[in-house]
Design a protein that fits this description.
Blueprint (H helix, E strand, L loop, with lengths): L3 E5 L3 H13 L3 E5 L2 H11 L3 E5 L7 H10 L8 E5 L4 H10 L3 E4 L4 H24 L1 E3 L2 E4 L4 E4 L2 E2 L4 H11 L5 E3 H9 L7 H15 L6 E4 L3 E4 L5
Parallel strand pairs: 1-2, 1-3, 3-4, 4-5
Antiparallel strand pairs: 6-7, 7-8, 8-9, 10-12, 11-12
Helix pairs in contact: 2-3, 3-4, 6-7, 6-8
């Protein structure tokens, strides 16, 4: 699927260059010549990224960036600043407002494409990591980083405890037998004993402290992760 890019640039020649360069690289291009047009296009089209000139005839690019990042519906859209200015202050302000990167005019189309693809990769990686993150009350699991936090403090979990907690927490409300838990966590060739699972659960609950109630015992069946807690 094509990525849709919004180019907010008042110079028609630069806009044409960007249109040609981006289209040649397989992007679908939306265009705006003013800050207000850019904000309207972003709100209606929700592009995958915005290439934003800082020197615009109505609302300057920094203000456009500020409004984009202040809108809950638009703040996720990455912004690549494009400007003739070379002053560090403009660059710093833009980055502090939430812009992903910047490039100064005159620019090399190849460099711009490389920077743009880098931005898109970073954003995709963050989105993937965020989608994988599991939250419940004060508990945060980040499987990609093999990280568990409770009330902002790291939990010292064994690999088996982490895998067990991740397995249960990723399916809140589902009840799993001890055999299912061991098969998921240790593999189907691991020797299953009720006692082994119960010992792991007991140790995990102890480390979870006040959040130990998130792991519920379903008598006669097994365990589940409490549903509905965020």
């Amino acid at each position: 699927m094509k990525k849709h890019l919004l180019v907010v640039e008042d110079d028609e020649d630069i806009r044409a260059l960007l249109r040609h360069t981006l289209a040649r690289e397989g992007f679908a291009v939306l265009e705006a010549a003013t800050g207000r047009e850019g904000l309207a296009a972003a709100a209606t089209k929700h592009p995958d990224a915005v290439i934003l000139d800082l020197m615009l005839p109505d609302i300057d690019g920094l203000e456009v960036c500020r409004r984009l990042k202040g809108d809950p519906e638009l703040k996720h859209i990455p912004v690549l600043m494009l400007t003739a200015k070379s002053e560090d202050t403009d660059i710093v302000v833009g980055l502090e407002l939430g812009a992903e990167d910047y490039i100064t005019k005159p620019f090399s189309p190849r460099v711009l494409i490389a920077r743009l693809r880098s931005v898109l990769r970073r954003v995709a990686a963050r989105a993937e990591a965020a989608a994988e993150e599991i939250r419940a009350e004060g508990l945060i699991l980040r499987p990609g980083k093999h990280e568990a936090l409770l009330d902002g403090q790291p939990l010292e979990l064994t690999p088996t405890e982490f895998a067990l907690l991740r397995f249960l927490a990723s399916r809140p409300g589902w009840v799993f037998s001890r055999n299912q838990i061991v098969e998921a966590v240790r593999g189907d060739e691991y020797v299953v004993t009720d006692r082994a699972v119960d010992v792991q659960i007991a140790g995990l609950r102890k480390k979870l402290g006040r959040s130990s109630h998130l792991i519920e015992t379903v008598r006669g069946i097994g365990y589940r992760f409490r549903e509905g807690e965020k």
